[in-house]
Design the sequence.
């Protein structure tokens, strides 16, 4: 596991809700196998809780994944993050964004979130 510094003052926030893979597949109107492929391709992020994979509800906006999410995830994984670390980064409170990076991905600050993720690799 790669080591990534997180300042003591940074506070993780909980996603608005968790959605299992069959429900994500239904939202996206795709088979569950396609959702699993999206996870492997880092177009979507899920973590295991009590043996079940869950996706944060706000990462899926209506019938699509948030536009900038796959790019941000690619940058985070290229920087050596694993699923849990990427989830922690996306859901760490940031006073300069509206809430946390995950929340900012669905608004005008999405490009700033991607820029910050890119800076992690250097």
Sequence:
């Amino acid at each position: 596991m790669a080591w990534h510094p997180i300042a003591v003052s940074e506070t993780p926030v909980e996603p608005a809700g968790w959605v299992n893979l069959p429900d994500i597949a239904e939202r996206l109107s795709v088979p569950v196998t396609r959702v699993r492929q999206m996870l492997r391709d880092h177009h979507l992020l899920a973590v295991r809780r009590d043996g079940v994979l869950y996706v944060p509800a706000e990462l899926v906006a209506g019938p699509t994944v948030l536009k900038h999410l796959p790019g941000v995830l690619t940058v985070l994984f290229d920087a050596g993050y694993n699923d849990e670390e990427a989830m922690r980064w996306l859901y760490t409170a940031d006073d300069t964004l509206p809430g946390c990076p995950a929340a900012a991905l669905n608004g005008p600050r999405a490009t700033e979130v991607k820029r910050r993720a890119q800076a992690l690799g250097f």
Q: What stands out?
A: Helices lie at 21-28, 32-40, 69-78, 83-90, 101-104, 110-119. The CA atoms of residues 72 and 115 lie 9 Å apart. The chain is about 40% helix and 10% strand. The radius of gyration is 14 Å.
